[in-house]
Amino acid sequence: MSKNCDESFTERLKAAERRHGLSAQEHQEQEPCVPQDTQKANQSLMRVALQVGTEMFSALLVGVAIGWELDHWLGTKAVFLIIFAILGGCAGVLSVWRLVRSMETS
Amino acid sequence: MKADPSINGLEQFELHPLLGSVGKALCFSQAPLYMIISAGVVLAFLYYGIKPAAIVPGRFQASVEISYEFIHDMAVDAIGPEGTAYFPFIFALFFFILAGNYIGLLPYQYTFTSHIAITFALAVATFTLAVIVSIKNQGWRFFAHFMPEGVSLFLAPLLVPIEILTFLSRPVSLAIRLFANMVAGHVMFDIFGAFTVLLAGFGVVGDVCAVGPVVLNVALMALELLVGVLQAYVFAILACIYLREAVAR
Q1: Is the CB of A54 less than 8 angstroms away from the CB of B173?
Q2: CB-based burial label for B25 (10 Å; 0-12, 13-18, 19+)
Q3: In chain B, which residue's Cα lies nearest the Cα of A49?
Q4: Is there a domain that residue B4 lies in?
Q5: Low-confidence ranges of chain A (pLDDT < 70)
Q6: B10 belongs to a structural domain
C-alpha cells in the first residue's frame, strides 16, 4: 500500500519537475555528488572502527567479569580469570569477524 | 561552561542530591530528575502533537506522525511483521535516549545517558526482553544456537563458551557505545570551554586566540547533534536486530 503511494508520488514528482524544466538529470548535476559519497564512506568507516573497538572491549570485559566472579566464588586464584579473559578476547575477535563478514555480504 | 579555569572534564558528570533534605533521603539526584523530564518531554510531544487530530496535519502533528512512522517502519523492516508487537518498546527506547541526549546539549543541563549505570540498565532491559522472547518462541532450541553448525564435538568445549561470551557481550557493548559517545562529546565541550577561559586570561593576544576554541565548540555542537540522534538510532536498530533473531524460528 505504502509502496504504491511512494511510486505514484515519485511519478507525480517527476512529472512536476518536467513541467517546470527541472529534470532529474539537472538535479544530479547541481548536487556535489562525489564529496558527499566520500564523506559518507569516511563516516561509516569511523563508525565501524568505533564499533569494532566497543565489541572487542565489551567481550573482554564480560570474560574478565565472569572469570573474576568464578574465582571469587570458588576460591581459586586467577585460574578462571585467565581462562575467561582469553575466551573473552576470542569472543571479541569472533564478533568483530562476524561484523566484518556481514558488511562484506551486504 | 563553568567559570573555574582548571580543566576537569569529568566534574560535570558528578551527581548531587537535589530538593534539599527530601532529595537526600531519597538519593534523588540529577539523573532521575532528567529521566523524568525526558519522559515528560516525549509524552508531552506526543500528546499535544496528536491532540488536534486533524485530517490534514499541521507541522507539529506532522512531526509526531513522521516520528511514529519512522520508528514503525524501522521496527517492521528490521524485525519483520512481528515487529509491530515490539514497536512501542523500540519507540520508547529511541525517544527516551534521543530526548536525554538532546536535553543534555542545552546549557546547564545534565546528560543522563553519560552514566553507564543508566545505559547499561537500558541495554539489560533490551537484552532480557530478547532472551525471554527467544525462549518463548524457540523453547530449548534457543540454546542450540550456542553450538555452531558443522563443528566437531572435539572443539565444542572451546567454542560453546566463546559463543556464550559473544552473546553476553551484547548488552555491554550496547551500553558502552552510548555511554562512551556521550561522555567523549561532553568532555570535549568542557575542555574547549576551559581553553577559552584560560586563553582569555592572557591579555589581548589571548582574547583573539580564545575565538578558536569557541569556533571549535560551535562545530562540536553540530557534531554532537548528529551523534545524539545517531546513537539513539544505533541503540534502537540493534535492539531491533536482537529481537529479529529472537522472533526467528
Answers
A1: yes
A2: exposed
A3: B177
A4: no
A5: 1-5, 21-43, 106
A6: no
- Structural domain boundaries of chain A? 1-31, 33-105
A91 contacts in chain B (CB < 8 Å): 162-163, 165-166, 169
Give the ipTM.
0.71
Q: Is B130 exposed, middle or buried (0-12, 13-18, 19+ CB in 10 A)?
A: buried
* Domain-located, residue B9: no
Nearest to A58 among B162, B163, B173 (CB): B173
Residues B170-214: tens digit of each pLDDT: 899 889 988 988 898 889 888 888 888 888 888 788 778 888 888
- pLDDT at residue A102, as a whole number: 80
Domain that holds residue B84: 19-247
Q: Is residue B193 part of a domain?
A: yes
What is the DSSP code string of B193-238? HHHHHHHHTTHHHHHHHTHHHHHHHHHHHHHHHHHHHHHHHHHHHH
pLDDT band at B41 (very low <50, low <70, confident <90, very high): very high
